[in-house]
């Protein structure tokens, strides 16, 4: 699952985090995801989810200082199902190993958090990556896509990849194409969009942005991308609501993936 949970902004009024946190946790529990990539999460929001999601552990750091400050692109996972073998975070910048670094035309620090998992039942291993692209800089989004594909070559070491994220870009735009079709040296092969490759199609709306108001047509900016070898059985964009309100300004996206080991 990928889920931009919207940062805790008191100015959101009725949609502020204290009014949504139980809904966000309930949605995650109900849909039964083993791994969730969250975006825009502040530390206290993650602590709130920790208390409401027993059995889950997480990795990730704040994008501002590489520790606790700023938003996290954290990865939550079921500790009873998965073994964490390694993890880390890098910055979407020309100096990706420098905490808090920015580059290109980005407005804000941006990060990608990764985790090397092994399934306790099957032994299958893969590299999970979660990210949140800049909302302003087009050059930053394109360069972030190139950086991620190159980093994945080193991090995955031939293992399958599952990538989640709010990319702030639509499928017709260059940052998406760089991830999914562009020929790139010293990089992993282009990734496949689970929305497209799901064997049963995609359930739900075709957009993921709602601004706490209504789902905006064609605004699909949240993705689950996978290595070409990975089989996707199901994919859904979840329009769940409580009392007529969304739990976030983005819709969560979930996929059932069965073909990691072949």
UniProtKB/TrEMBL annotation:
Pinpoint the Endonuclease/exonuclease/phosphatase domain residues: 1-250
Please, which domain of life does this record's source organism belong to? Bacteria
MF (Gene Ontology): 3'-5'-RNA exonuclease activity
Q: Where is the signal peptide?
A: none
- Supply the name of the protein: Endonuclease/exonuclease/phosphatase domain-containing protein
């Amino acid at each position: 699952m990928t889920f931009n949970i919207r940062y805790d902004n008191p100015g959101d009024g009725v949609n502020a985090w204290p009014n949504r946190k139980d809904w966000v946790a309930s949605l995650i529990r109900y849909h039964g995801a083993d791994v969730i990539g969250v975006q825009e999460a502040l530390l206290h929001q993650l602590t709130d989810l920790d208390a409401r999601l027993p059995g889950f552990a997480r990795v990730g750091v704040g994008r501002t200082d590489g520790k606790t400050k700023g938003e996290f692109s954290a990865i939550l996972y079921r500790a009873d199902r998965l073994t964490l073998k390694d993890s880390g975070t890098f910055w979407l910048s020309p100096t990706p190993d420098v905490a808090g670094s920015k580059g290109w035309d980005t407005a804000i620090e941006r990060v990608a958090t990764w985790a090397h998992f092994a399934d306790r039942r099957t032994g299958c291993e893969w590299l999970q990556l979660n990210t949140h692209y800049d909302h302003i800089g087009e050059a930053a989004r394109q360069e972030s896509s190139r950086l991620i594909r190159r980093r994945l070559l080193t991090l995955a070491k031939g293992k399958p990849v599952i990538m989640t994220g709010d990319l702030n870009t639509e499928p017709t735009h260059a940052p998406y194409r760089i991830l999914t079709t562009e020929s790139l040296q010293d990089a992993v092969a282009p990734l496949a969009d689970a929305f497209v490759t799901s064997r049963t199609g995609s359930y739900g709306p075709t957009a993921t942005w709602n601004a706490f108001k209504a789902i905006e047509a064609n605004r699909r900016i949240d993705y689950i991308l996978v290595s070409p070898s990975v089989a996707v059985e199901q994919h859904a964009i979840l329009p769940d609501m409580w009392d007529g309100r969304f739990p976030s300004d983005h819709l969560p996206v979930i996929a059932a993936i069965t073909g990691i080991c072949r």
